[in-house]
Amino acid sequence: MDALHTAGIHFAEALQAGPPCLEKFWIWVTSLADPKCIFTICFPLAYFLDRKVGVSVLWIGLVSEWLNVVLKWFLFGERPFWWVHESGLTRKELVTLRQFAVSCETGPGDPSGHCMITGAALWPLVTALTALASRHSRSLVVKLSPFGAYTLLLLAVGLSRIFVLAHFPHQVVGGILAGAALGWGLQGHTPATRTMGFFVAAALALLLGSLTLHSLVIAAGIDIDW
Question: What predicted TM-score, i.e. pTM, was given to this entire model?
Answer without folding.
Answer: 0.90
